[in-house]
Design brief:
This protein is of the alpha/beta class. 46% of the residues lie in helices and 18% in strands.
Length: 284
């Protein structure tokens, strides 16, 4: 298998790596009281430049981010911005979602097609520069079926991960085919089509995630209740982690009942940044 890489020196990729280090540093026990000048110096940037970059990637200022960490941002979100999925499912909203001004329309592969491992299906893939470094996008003729942030996992691991989900498909490198999907997502305008390829239980979990509004969070337990499987909390957690379309299917909005972040398939620094940015956007 040949892995086609994006340009390694893209500005976004470099800046995300820098901000990822900054997020880790601020999250360390001895980092939550660092001044702007101190953390900027550690990143070899001027305070003003660091502040602009950090706010761009995390959605909030370094000081506000430190406050989130001290106050237990995930727990505060769970207490104040908790979405009741049963209500959303009961109002006929299933299958639709919104990310800023981006509308998502999705369809699921049939159980039989999923069981065949994607046989007879052509999946095109391409590497693209994203807000958190390189992104791997995969799409069928019906829509985006995979979107991975690769800065934390590594490019080869991300490619192997997504290809292994549909091993019998015809995988082709075709960034021109995936570019429109990525551009729509990054611009936050227009309509994006998703082609969800998963087991029926996974599809139900991902459908529930699509109903969690930006700036809100839910729990694995609530997702389990919403899909009619209240005892399947562990299985729900596994399905959340197997979500192949990062960001657009917002698995980052699923937290543990305790308010802990839980895991994130594409790296916890990305999950922290996504939650902080959405909180800032919605005033949470």
């Amino acid at each position: 298998m040949t892995v086609h890489h994006p340009p390694a020196d893209t500005e976004d990729g470099y800046h995300w790596q820098l901000m990822r280090r900054a997020i880790d540093r601020l999250d360390a026990p001895d980092g939550r009281d660092l001044t702007l000048e101190q953390i900027a110096a550690e990143m070899n940037l001027s305070p003003a430049h660091f502040q602009r970059l950090f706010s761009r990637y995390a959605g909030v200022s370094p000081k506000r981010f430190q406050q989130y960490l001290r106050l237990g941002h995930a727990k505060a979100l769970l207490a104040e911005r908790h979405t009741t999925l049963e209500t959303a499912l009961g109002t006929g909203m299933s299958g639709t979602g919104r990310l800023h001004d981006l509308f998502l329309r999705w369809e699921a592969m049939s159980p039989g097609d999923y069981a065949s491992g994607g046989a007879g299906l052509t999946i095109r893939h391409g590497w693209h520069a994203g807000p958190f470094g390189p992104m791997l996008a995969m799409a069928t003729e019906r829509g985006l079926c995979g979107l991975a942030f690769t800065a934390e996992t590594g490019e080869t691991a991300a490619m192997d991960d997504l290809r292994a989900r549909w091993p019998a498909a015809d995988h082709r490198h075709d960034p021109a085919a995936t570019a429109p999907h990525v551009e729509a997502a990054l611009a936050g305008r227009g309509e994006a089509r998703l082609h969800l390829i998963g087991a029926p239980f996974q599809i139900k979990v991902w459908e529930a995630l699509l109903l969690v509004p930006e700036g809100h969070v839910t729990t694995y337990g609530e997702i389990a209740r919403a899909i009619g499987r209240p005892r399947a909390v562990r299985a729900v957690g596994t399905a959340v982690g197997r979500n192949p379309v990062s960001w657009l299917i917002p698995c980052h909005r699923a937290l543990r009942k305790s308010g802990g972040l839980g895991g994130y398939h594409w790296g916890l620094p990305v999950k922290r940044a996504l939650l902080a940015a959405e909180s800032a956007e919605t005033g949470a």
